[in-house]
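In this supplementary section we document a worked example of the pipeline. Step one takes a protein sequence of length 421 as its only input; no multiple sequence alignment statistics are reported here. Step two produces a three-dimensional model, which step three serialises into C-alpha coordinates for compact storage. The input and output of this example are shown verbatim.
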Amino acid sequence: MTDLDRILTGAGRITVAGAPEGLDGRVVARLAAGAPGGVLHIARDDARMAALARSIGFFAPDLAVLRLPAWDCLPYDRVSPNGEVSAQRMDALARLAARADTGAAEPFVLLTTVNAAVQRVPARDLLRDATLRARVGATLDLDALLEFLVRNGFTRTGTVMEAGEFATRGGIVDIFPPGAESPLRLDFFGDTLETIRVFDPLTQRTIGKQDGIDLVPVSEVLLTDETITRFRGGYRALFGAVTDDDPLYAAVSEGRKHIGMEHWLPLYHERLESLFDYLPDAVLTQDHLVDEAREARLTQIREHYDARAEVAETRGYGQAPIYKPVPPDRLYLPDAEWRTATGGRRIAAFTPFQVPPGDNVVDAGGRQGRKFTAERAQDDVNVFDALRGHIEAQRKQARRIVVAGYSAGSADRLSLVLQDH
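The serialised model returned by step three reads:
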Protein backbone atom coordinates (compact mmCIF):
# COMPACT_ATOMS: atom_id res chain seq x y z
CA MET A 1 0.00 0.00 0.00
CA THR A 2 1.44 3.37 -1.04
CA ASP A 3 1.22 6.52 1.03
CA LEU A 4 -1.51 7.81 -1.28
CA ASP A 5 -3.50 4.63 -0.72
CA ARG A 6 -3.37 5.39 2.99
CA ILE A 7 -4.92 8.79 2.32
CA LEU A 8 -7.67 7.41 0.09
CA THR A 9 -8.79 4.63 2.43
CA GLY A 10 -10.46 4.88 5.81
CA ALA A 11 -11.50 7.99 7.68
CA GLY A 12 -9.89 10.47 10.00
CA ARG A 13 -7.23 13.13 9.68
CA ILE A 14 -3.85 12.45 8.15
CA THR A 15 -0.98 14.93 7.94
CA VAL A 16 0.76 15.21 4.58
CA ALA A 17 4.19 16.48 5.56
CA GLY A 18 6.81 17.75 3.15
CA ALA A 19 4.18 19.36 0.92
CA PRO A 20 5.21 22.98 0.29
CA GLU A 21 3.06 25.16 -1.93
CA GLY A 22 3.41 23.93 -5.50
CA LEU A 23 3.98 20.30 -4.66
CA ASP A 24 0.53 20.15 -3.05
CA GLY A 25 -0.98 20.49 -6.52
CA ARG A 26 0.76 17.29 -7.61
CA VAL A 27 -0.53 15.44 -4.54
CA VAL A 28 -4.10 16.66 -5.09
CA ALA A 29 -3.99 15.60 -8.74
CA ARG A 30 -2.74 12.12 -7.84
CA LEU A 31 -5.41 11.76 -5.16
CA ALA A 32 -8.14 12.75 -7.63
CA ALA A 33 -7.08 9.94 -9.95
CA GLY A 34 -7.98 7.41 -7.25
CA ALA A 35 -10.97 9.11 -5.61
CA PRO A 36 -14.32 8.13 -7.21
CA GLY A 37 -16.12 10.81 -5.21
CA GLY A 38 -13.69 13.52 -6.22
CA VAL A 39 -11.44 15.72 -4.12
CA LEU A 40 -12.63 18.79 -2.22
CA HIS A 41 -9.67 21.05 -1.50
CA ILE A 42 -10.01 24.00 0.90
CA ALA A 43 -7.48 26.78 0.34
CA ARG A 44 -6.69 29.54 2.80
CA ASP A 45 -7.78 32.31 0.44
CA ASP A 46 -8.44 33.19 -3.20
CA ALA A 47 -4.75 33.68 -4.01
CA ARG A 48 -3.92 30.19 -2.79
CA MET A 49 -6.88 28.74 -4.69
CA ALA A 50 -5.67 30.35 -7.93
CA ALA A 51 -2.09 29.17 -7.34
CA LEU A 52 -3.23 25.60 -6.70
CA ALA A 53 -5.34 25.63 -9.86
CA ARG A 54 -2.22 26.57 -11.85
CA SER A 55 -0.21 23.87 -10.09
CA ILE A 56 -2.80 21.17 -10.85
CA GLY A 57 -2.98 22.38 -14.44
CA PHE A 58 0.78 21.86 -14.74
CA PHE A 59 0.88 18.35 -13.25
CA ALA A 60 -2.47 17.11 -14.62
CA PRO A 61 -3.64 19.29 -17.53
CA ASP A 62 -6.54 16.94 -18.38
CA LEU A 63 -7.99 16.84 -14.86
CA ALA A 64 -11.36 18.58 -14.44
CA VAL A 65 -11.01 21.42 -11.92
CA LEU A 66 -13.97 23.42 -10.60
CA ARG A 67 -13.58 26.56 -8.53
CA LEU A 68 -16.07 27.91 -6.03
CA PRO A 69 -14.96 31.31 -4.68
CA ALA A 70 -16.34 33.06 -1.62
CA TRP A 71 -18.42 36.22 -1.76
CA ASP A 72 -16.09 39.17 -2.27
CA CYS A 73 -17.69 41.20 0.52
CA LEU A 74 -17.57 41.21 4.29
CA PRO A 75 -20.05 39.30 6.46
CA TYR A 76 -23.27 41.30 6.95
CA ASP A 77 -22.14 43.88 4.41
CA ARG A 78 -24.43 46.43 2.77
CA VAL A 79 -23.19 45.50 -0.70
CA SER A 80 -23.88 42.43 -2.82
CA PRO A 81 -21.20 40.02 -4.02
CA ASN A 82 -19.79 40.78 -7.46
CA GLY A 83 -21.94 39.44 -10.28
CA GLU A 84 -19.10 37.42 -11.82
CA VAL A 85 -18.34 35.82 -8.45
CA SER A 86 -21.99 34.88 -7.98
CA ALA A 87 -22.16 33.47 -11.50
CA GLN A 88 -19.02 31.39 -10.97
CA ARG A 89 -20.40 30.04 -7.70
CA MET A 90 -23.71 29.01 -9.28
CA ASP A 91 -21.96 27.43 -12.25
CA ALA A 92 -19.79 25.31 -9.93
CA LEU A 93 -22.77 24.26 -7.79
CA ALA A 94 -24.81 23.37 -10.88
CA ARG A 95 -21.97 21.23 -12.25
CA LEU A 96 -21.66 19.42 -8.91
CA ALA A 97 -25.41 18.77 -8.77
CA ALA A 98 -25.36 17.51 -12.36
CA ARG A 99 -22.46 15.15 -11.62
CA ALA A 100 -24.42 13.61 -8.78
CA ASP A 101 -27.52 13.17 -10.95
CA THR A 102 -25.69 11.63 -13.92
CA GLY A 103 -23.31 9.50 -11.86
CA ALA A 104 -20.29 10.90 -13.69
CA ALA A 105 -17.16 8.98 -12.73
CA GLU A 106 -14.29 10.92 -14.32
CA PRO A 107 -11.79 12.34 -11.79
CA PHE A 108 -12.29 15.93 -10.69
CA VAL A 109 -11.27 18.44 -8.04
CA LEU A 110 -13.34 21.20 -6.48
CA LEU A 111 -11.19 24.07 -5.24
CA THR A 112 -12.68 26.44 -2.71
CA THR A 113 -11.62 28.67 0.16
CA VAL A 114 -12.15 28.74 3.90
CA ASN A 115 -14.57 31.66 3.56
CA ALA A 116 -16.63 29.82 0.95
CA ALA A 117 -16.62 26.48 2.77
CA VAL A 118 -18.01 27.89 6.03
CA GLN A 119 -20.94 29.53 4.24
CA ARG A 120 -24.17 27.70 3.51
CA VAL A 121 -25.33 27.40 -0.11
CA PRO A 122 -28.67 26.81 -1.88
CA ALA A 123 -29.89 23.21 -1.82
CA ARG A 124 -29.17 20.93 -4.76
CA ASP A 125 -32.88 20.77 -5.61
CA LEU A 126 -32.79 24.44 -6.62
CA LEU A 127 -30.16 23.74 -9.28
CA ARG A 128 -32.07 20.72 -10.58
CA ASP A 129 -35.33 22.65 -10.91
CA ALA A 130 -33.80 25.86 -12.29
CA THR A 131 -31.79 24.56 -15.23
CA LEU A 132 -32.75 25.23 -18.82
CA ARG A 133 -31.24 23.17 -21.63
CA ALA A 134 -31.71 24.05 -25.31
CA ARG A 135 -30.24 22.63 -28.50
CA VAL A 136 -29.97 24.00 -32.02
CA GLY A 137 -33.01 23.03 -34.06
CA ALA A 138 -35.22 22.55 -31.03
CA THR A 139 -38.36 24.51 -30.20
CA LEU A 140 -37.89 27.12 -27.48
CA ASP A 141 -40.48 29.73 -26.63
CA LEU A 142 -38.71 33.09 -26.72
CA ASP A 143 -40.94 34.71 -24.10
CA ALA A 144 -40.41 31.71 -21.80
CA LEU A 145 -36.64 32.06 -22.23
CA LEU A 146 -36.70 35.75 -21.33
CA GLU A 147 -38.90 35.02 -18.30
CA PHE A 148 -36.43 32.33 -17.21
CA LEU A 149 -33.50 34.75 -17.48
CA VAL A 150 -35.18 37.43 -15.38
CA ARG A 151 -36.43 34.93 -12.80
CA ASN A 152 -32.98 33.41 -12.38
CA GLY A 153 -31.02 36.57 -11.75
CA PHE A 154 -29.81 37.58 -15.22
CA THR A 155 -29.59 41.33 -15.84
CA ARG A 156 -30.97 42.90 -19.00
CA THR A 157 -28.50 45.29 -20.66
CA GLY A 158 -28.07 47.05 -23.97
CA THR A 159 -24.82 45.23 -24.76
CA VAL A 160 -23.69 42.01 -23.09
CA MET A 161 -20.23 42.35 -21.54
CA GLU A 162 -20.14 40.33 -18.29
CA ALA A 163 -21.38 37.00 -16.96
CA GLY A 164 -25.04 37.10 -15.94
CA GLU A 165 -26.13 39.67 -18.54
CA PHE A 166 -28.51 39.32 -21.50
CA ALA A 167 -29.80 41.54 -24.28
CA THR A 168 -32.52 41.15 -26.92
CA ARG A 169 -32.94 42.49 -30.43
CA GLY A 170 -35.95 41.07 -32.24
CA GLY A 171 -35.38 37.35 -32.67
CA ILE A 172 -31.78 37.51 -31.35
CA VAL A 173 -30.90 36.98 -27.69
CA ASP A 174 -27.36 37.59 -26.39
CA ILE A 175 -26.54 35.76 -23.15
CA PHE A 176 -23.39 35.49 -21.05
CA PRO A 177 -23.99 32.23 -19.13
CA PRO A 178 -22.26 31.46 -15.81
CA GLY A 179 -19.01 29.58 -16.36
CA ALA A 180 -18.73 30.50 -20.05
CA GLU A 181 -15.58 32.17 -21.36
CA SER A 182 -17.50 34.23 -23.93
CA PRO A 183 -21.14 35.28 -24.44
CA LEU A 184 -23.51 33.47 -26.80
CA ARG A 185 -25.84 34.80 -29.49
CA LEU A 186 -29.07 32.82 -29.92
CA ASP A 187 -30.78 33.35 -33.27
CA PHE A 188 -34.48 32.40 -33.42
CA PHE A 189 -36.80 31.83 -36.34
CA GLY A 190 -40.16 31.94 -34.68
CA ASP A 191 -39.86 29.52 -31.76
CA THR A 192 -37.06 27.50 -33.38
CA LEU A 193 -33.51 27.99 -32.15
CA GLU A 194 -31.60 28.17 -35.44
CA THR A 195 -28.02 28.90 -34.35
CA ILE A 196 -25.90 29.49 -31.26
CA ARG A 197 -22.85 31.61 -31.97
CA VAL A 198 -19.99 32.45 -29.62
CA PHE A 199 -18.94 36.09 -29.96
CA ASP A 200 -16.35 38.52 -28.66
CA PRO A 201 -18.07 41.04 -26.34
CA LEU A 202 -15.62 43.80 -27.33
CA THR A 203 -15.86 43.49 -31.12
CA GLN A 204 -19.26 41.74 -31.23
CA ARG A 205 -17.80 39.44 -33.90
CA THR A 206 -18.56 35.73 -34.07
CA ILE A 207 -15.63 33.56 -32.97
CA GLY A 208 -17.28 30.14 -32.98
CA LYS A 209 -20.45 28.06 -32.84
CA GLN A 210 -21.92 25.44 -30.53
CA ASP A 211 -24.78 22.98 -30.63
CA GLY A 212 -26.49 23.67 -27.31
CA ILE A 213 -26.70 25.77 -24.18
CA ASP A 214 -27.27 24.94 -20.50
CA LEU A 215 -28.48 27.84 -18.37
CA VAL A 216 -28.44 27.94 -14.57
CA PRO A 217 -29.23 30.79 -12.13
CA VAL A 218 -26.61 33.49 -11.77
CA SER A 219 -27.60 34.41 -8.23
CA GLU A 220 -28.26 32.51 -5.03
CA VAL A 221 -31.34 34.68 -4.50
CA LEU A 222 -34.23 34.22 -6.93
CA LEU A 223 -37.15 36.65 -6.55
CA THR A 224 -40.12 34.47 -7.42
CA ASP A 225 -43.59 34.61 -5.87
CA GLU A 226 -42.67 31.64 -3.70
CA THR A 227 -39.35 33.05 -2.45
CA ILE A 228 -40.83 36.49 -1.83
CA THR A 229 -43.61 34.99 0.28
CA ARG A 230 -41.10 32.87 2.18
CA PHE A 231 -38.84 35.88 2.77
CA ARG A 232 -41.66 38.05 4.07
CA GLY A 233 -42.83 35.39 6.51
CA GLY A 234 -39.33 34.54 7.69
CA TYR A 235 -38.36 38.18 8.09
CA ARG A 236 -41.36 38.98 10.27
CA ALA A 237 -40.91 35.79 12.32
CA LEU A 238 -37.27 36.64 12.96
CA PHE A 239 -37.44 40.40 13.52
CA GLY A 240 -41.05 41.11 14.45
CA ALA A 241 -43.32 43.74 12.98
CA VAL A 242 -41.95 45.59 9.96
CA THR A 243 -41.86 49.37 9.95
CA ASP A 244 -42.04 51.75 6.99
CA ASP A 245 -38.30 52.55 7.15
CA ASP A 246 -37.16 49.09 6.05
CA PRO A 247 -36.07 49.41 2.38
CA LEU A 248 -34.96 45.75 2.13
CA TYR A 249 -38.36 44.40 3.08
CA ALA A 250 -40.12 46.87 0.80
CA ALA A 251 -37.92 46.08 -2.20
CA VAL A 252 -38.15 42.30 -1.89
CA SER A 253 -41.90 42.48 -1.29
CA GLU A 254 -42.23 44.31 -4.62
CA GLY A 255 -39.98 41.81 -6.42
CA ARG A 256 -37.15 44.34 -6.83
CA LYS A 257 -33.47 43.63 -6.29
CA HIS A 258 -31.98 45.40 -3.30
CA ILE A 259 -28.26 45.92 -2.89
CA GLY A 260 -26.90 43.54 -0.28
CA MET A 261 -30.03 41.39 -0.15
CA GLU A 262 -27.93 38.20 -0.47
CA HIS A 263 -26.92 38.50 3.19
CA TRP A 264 -30.43 37.35 4.15
CA LEU A 265 -29.99 34.18 2.05
CA PRO A 266 -31.65 31.74 4.52
CA LEU A 267 -34.93 33.64 4.35
CA TYR A 268 -35.40 33.03 0.63
CA HIS A 269 -34.94 29.27 0.80
CA GLU A 270 -36.78 26.47 2.49
CA ARG A 271 -33.41 25.07 3.50
CA LEU A 272 -29.72 25.59 2.81
CA GLU A 273 -26.98 23.00 2.47
CA SER A 274 -23.21 22.96 2.70
CA LEU A 275 -20.52 22.04 0.20
CA PHE A 276 -20.11 18.77 2.07
CA ASP A 277 -23.68 17.86 1.12
CA TYR A 278 -22.83 18.37 -2.55
CA LEU A 279 -19.78 16.10 -2.24
CA PRO A 280 -20.72 13.36 0.22
CA ASP A 281 -17.98 10.93 -0.86
CA ALA A 282 -15.16 13.34 -1.66
CA VAL A 283 -11.71 13.17 -0.10
CA LEU A 284 -11.10 16.40 1.80
CA THR A 285 -7.71 18.09 1.48
CA GLN A 286 -6.72 21.42 2.94
CA ASP A 287 -3.96 24.01 2.90
CA HIS A 288 -1.52 24.56 5.70
CA LEU A 289 -3.07 26.80 8.42
CA VAL A 290 -6.66 26.29 7.20
CA ASP A 291 -7.85 25.47 10.71
CA GLU A 292 -6.47 28.75 12.01
CA ALA A 293 -8.00 30.63 9.07
CA ARG A 294 -11.41 29.10 9.77
CA GLU A 295 -11.27 30.12 13.43
CA ALA A 296 -10.36 33.66 12.39
CA ARG A 297 -13.26 33.74 9.92
CA LEU A 298 -15.79 32.58 12.51
CA THR A 299 -14.51 35.25 14.90
CA GLN A 300 -14.88 37.89 12.19
CA ILE A 301 -18.43 36.73 11.43
CA ARG A 302 -19.42 36.93 15.08
CA GLU A 303 -17.88 40.40 15.49
CA HIS A 304 -19.67 41.78 12.43
CA TYR A 305 -22.97 40.25 13.55
CA ASP A 306 -22.65 41.66 17.06
CA ALA A 307 -21.86 45.11 15.67
CA ARG A 308 -24.89 45.03 13.36
CA ALA A 309 -27.18 43.70 16.10
CA GLU A 310 -26.05 46.37 18.55
CA VAL A 311 -26.69 49.17 16.04
CA ALA A 312 -30.11 47.73 15.16
CA GLU A 313 -31.06 47.61 18.82
CA THR A 314 -29.90 51.15 19.60
CA ARG A 315 -31.03 52.60 16.24
CA GLY A 316 -27.53 54.05 15.75
CA TYR A 317 -25.80 55.57 12.70
CA GLY A 318 -28.28 58.42 12.38
CA GLN A 319 -30.38 58.21 9.24
CA ALA A 320 -28.78 55.05 7.79
CA PRO A 321 -31.34 52.37 6.80
CA ILE A 322 -31.94 49.85 9.55
CA TYR A 323 -29.97 46.60 9.25
CA LYS A 324 -31.36 43.49 10.93
CA PRO A 325 -28.75 40.72 10.63
CA VAL A 326 -29.61 37.04 10.28
CA PRO A 327 -28.13 34.96 13.14
CA PRO A 328 -24.72 33.55 12.12
CA ASP A 329 -25.75 29.90 12.46
CA ARG A 330 -28.45 30.42 9.81
CA LEU A 331 -25.93 31.53 7.16
CA TYR A 332 -22.63 30.00 8.30
CA LEU A 333 -21.52 26.61 9.62
CA PRO A 334 -20.73 26.80 13.34
CA ASP A 335 -17.76 24.87 14.64
CA ALA A 336 -19.83 21.93 15.90
CA GLU A 337 -21.60 21.46 12.57
CA TRP A 338 -18.31 21.72 10.68
CA ARG A 339 -16.83 18.96 12.79
CA THR A 340 -19.89 16.78 12.26
CA ALA A 341 -19.76 17.28 8.48
CA THR A 342 -16.06 16.41 8.29
CA GLY A 343 -15.91 13.83 11.07
CA GLY A 344 -16.46 10.74 8.94
CA ARG A 345 -14.19 11.79 6.08
CA ARG A 346 -10.59 11.20 5.23
CA ILE A 347 -8.91 14.59 5.68
CA ALA A 348 -5.45 15.22 4.26
CA ALA A 349 -3.94 18.31 5.86
CA PHE A 350 -0.87 19.66 4.06
CA THR A 351 2.13 21.12 5.82
CA PRO A 352 5.42 22.25 4.28
CA PHE A 353 7.33 21.08 7.35
CA GLN A 354 8.73 17.72 8.32
CA VAL A 355 6.74 15.74 10.89
CA PRO A 356 7.96 12.70 12.87
CA PRO A 357 6.75 9.44 11.25
CA GLY A 358 3.51 7.96 12.53
CA ASP A 359 0.35 6.13 11.57
CA ASN A 360 -1.35 9.40 10.66
CA VAL A 361 1.57 10.98 8.81
CA VAL A 362 2.48 10.73 5.12
CA ASP A 363 5.66 12.24 3.69
CA ALA A 364 5.07 13.84 0.28
CA GLY A 365 8.83 14.10 -0.18
CA GLY A 366 8.97 17.85 -0.74
CA ARG A 367 11.71 20.00 0.70
CA GLN A 368 12.00 23.74 0.47
CA GLY A 369 14.92 24.85 -1.67
CA ARG A 370 17.86 26.86 -0.43
CA LYS A 371 17.03 30.55 -0.25
CA PHE A 372 20.46 31.78 0.93
CA THR A 373 18.86 34.13 3.44
CA ALA A 374 21.79 33.88 5.85
CA GLU A 375 24.37 34.52 3.12
CA ARG A 376 22.53 37.59 1.84
CA ALA A 377 22.56 39.05 5.34
CA GLN A 378 26.39 38.86 5.61
CA ASP A 379 28.38 41.72 4.06
CA ASP A 380 31.54 39.64 3.71
CA VAL A 381 29.87 36.79 1.80
CA ASN A 382 29.24 36.76 -1.94
CA VAL A 383 25.89 35.05 -2.30
CA PHE A 384 26.70 33.91 -5.84
CA ASP A 385 29.84 32.19 -4.67
CA ALA A 386 27.73 30.43 -2.04
CA LEU A 387 25.24 29.47 -4.75
CA ARG A 388 28.02 28.09 -6.94
CA GLY A 389 29.30 25.97 -4.08
CA HIS A 390 25.81 24.65 -3.36
CA ILE A 391 25.26 23.72 -7.01
CA GLU A 392 28.58 21.92 -7.18
CA ALA A 393 27.72 19.96 -4.03
CA GLN A 394 24.35 18.93 -5.48
CA ARG A 395 25.93 17.86 -8.77
CA LYS A 396 28.31 15.57 -6.93
CA GLN A 397 25.18 13.80 -5.59
CA ALA A 398 23.85 13.42 -9.16
CA ARG A 399 20.93 15.74 -8.52
CA ARG A 400 19.22 17.94 -11.07
CA ILE A 401 19.09 21.63 -10.20
CA VAL A 402 16.51 24.32 -10.82
CA VAL A 403 17.26 27.98 -10.07
CA ALA A 404 14.06 30.05 -9.72
CA GLY A 405 13.62 33.80 -9.99
CA TYR A 406 10.72 36.09 -9.14
CA SER A 407 10.19 37.05 -12.79
CA ALA A 408 11.52 36.49 -16.30
CA GLY A 409 13.74 39.54 -15.86
CA SER A 410 15.26 38.28 -12.63
CA ALA A 411 15.81 34.87 -14.21
CA ASP A 412 17.71 36.48 -17.11
CA ARG A 413 19.84 38.45 -14.67
CA LEU A 414 20.57 35.31 -12.66
CA SER A 415 21.62 33.54 -15.83
CA LEU A 416 24.12 36.27 -16.70
CA VAL A 417 25.52 36.57 -13.18
CA LEU A 418 25.90 32.81 -12.80
CA GLN A 419 27.83 32.64 -16.07
CA ASP A 420 30.35 35.04 -14.52
CA HIS A 421 30.71 32.76 -11.52
